[in-house]
Amino acid sequence: RKLMSRMSTTGQKFRKKITIPQEEHPDINFLGLLIGPRGSTQKQMQQDSGAKILIRGRGSSRDGNDEDPHEPLHVLVVADSEDSMQRGARMVEDIVLNPENARRLKQRQLQELGGGRGDRDDRDRRHNQPRKEIKVPNGDVGLLIGRGGETIRRLQHDFGCQIQIEREPRPGSPNRVVTLSGPEDAIEKLHEDIRGMMNNRRGGDRERGPQKERKVIMVPGHMIGMIIGKGGETIRGLRQRTGAYIQVTKNDPGSTQSLDREVVLSGTERQIEHADQEIMEMIRAREADQQNRGGGRG
């Protein structure tokens, strides 16, 4: 398998070089996707990760004044902490190593630009997709959007659905209408996830049975990627199997080091215990695997 990335440290900086597989996917303009309309995608990834995301190599500059012109096209992720560097690298790899994600991102960017033929075609396709309208309390809309749109982008990416929030609440209504569109089964899973977020904030509600509880566990920072999984697949599976709502807290942007991260478990006592056990078993299994590999090299 072709090596797609390389990590190193220089002084106090952590760096990771990720090769862009342009030759393998000539139909995808990775450079344009990574930069985004008016530079929005690159700026957002930098803001969310706390890392610098730099595009280098042949073809990285429209005017031909490429940096590192003798290198193949690549992304250089640079950060003050390993955690920020890994977070930025995951965001980049989610685009360049996953063609389906890249194509979905292109559709979203076309929607941002508006007016193009691709945008109209995309609207036509979405018009024929299943849709579901849900109501979100006005006070919870910010939670759904997240800081800088981080939460709504993650949900759209994880579930492969579009989320459209009514710009203004209807006169006298305590709720905002939110429209979910995409595959039917994905819409239902997304709706359940949104409901879990709302209930987590309110500490549970009477409609969902037993009173909700909350537990915070500490997880080594380098294990967080394993718990989330590619595209959020692992954490979704944990939520479905245990019935608990599982949320990884965002790293403190001012922190230069992150040894442990908080993971918040919400649900009934039994659901929380089940989720806690599964997560701890995953960590123990990974640590045992790392020790075995280390012993095998000795």
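That was protein one. Protein two is written in the same sequence-then-structure order:
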Amino acid sequence: TLWFLGYLWIEEEGSQAPASEAPIVVANHLGPIEPLVIATLTRGMPVSKIENASIPLFGSLAKVFLPIFVDRANPESRDLVKHEIESRANAVADGVFRSPVFLFPEGTVTNGTSIITFKTGAFSPRLPVQPLLVQFPHTPGHIHPSWGIPSPSLGEIFFRLMCEPYNRCRLTWLPKVEPVSPDEMTEWPGPKIFANRVQRIFAEELGTPTTQYSFEDMKLMQEALKFSSRKLALEQGGAAVELKVIQSIISDLDIKDAKACLKRFHSLAKTKDGELTYEEFEEAMGVNEINNLYLTSKECRRMFDLLDDDQSGRLNFREFLVGVSLFRAASPDCSDTFEEVLKFCFRIYDTEGTGKIDYDHATHILRAIKPDGTEEEWKATFNEIDKNDNETLEESEFVAWAMGNGKDVFQHLNFVFSPIVDERQDTTRSSDPLTEPLLDP
């Protein structure tokens, strides 16, 4: 197969360690060629997504090497595969198998310009691993067989490779790497710390940066490319958000939520350039200067500017996702997240950015939360919140009061932010927040 694709011989530098000394081989993943090359040279047992088993020819070849197939649609598959990797790696170390387990810890293909986040499966056994650098030297005008996003189809890659009289593949074996520090030997986060160190080794040897992008970001990019009218803008990185970084802050966010948010972002960004303008944002929020249940234009503008982290005057998908995910995770039952949302809301109503809210701004919130109250009752509530009697509310005073009135405040925030959080909502909301469905906390 490799001969037909123009790989008449493989350039190798360094040497492979005995399998018993390095039972796991890890490599960077660029496309469909290096799995064939590594399997042929090492006779190793690959870890591969189960969909590859159905690819003509490739699937049949893969089964010869006793692969470990990962079913990403099966929630239980991750633990099963982790156990199987550990079991086989230990068997290799004990001499039961003569060939190593090999896998691509990035979990997906890339174009090779950076090393994305390593998954921990290869590092969970806490056994020595041997890094293998994969490179495809080529000159301009010749095909590079990376299969990232976007890229030619698999059939086009194979066809163009066969049109070349000769294609180059270079493999560089690095010395084996062992977990050495006590932190790396712990059950958790030992595998993650070990994986990060090996990721840095790959990046240093290849002369490329490491990134926090992950397999989940690739799935988001695939979802984004469904919006063909916006293809160019999203190909430039709009849907690549370093999801793992956001998840480290907002743990409830998963890939399903991110895809739903991307769909909502697409529906709101009517200019189709991959970013959300203030006018589109204001229209979605249903700004209303009269009804206290809605944000005023100044408050909406303030909210937009707070979300616009790079101050570009437009919201990209990452900025939108961070804001929406924070609101989605808000719940009076989760005090830490709810407190962060309340601090953000305080800054929205603090339209002048002074760190204080006067009575006029505060009544906008109080009337929305207690629509049946009187002016005297709202004033009394304001004075109750204003602990230092300076006629303004500071952030700490507002947050302390709101935490104590969590249910009422939450219902108001739920109503205010529903247009950008919930794709079922639109700007024709009813005037009663009690008729609106609650956000997913």
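Residues 77-93 form the longest helix (17 residues). Keep this in mind for the problem set.
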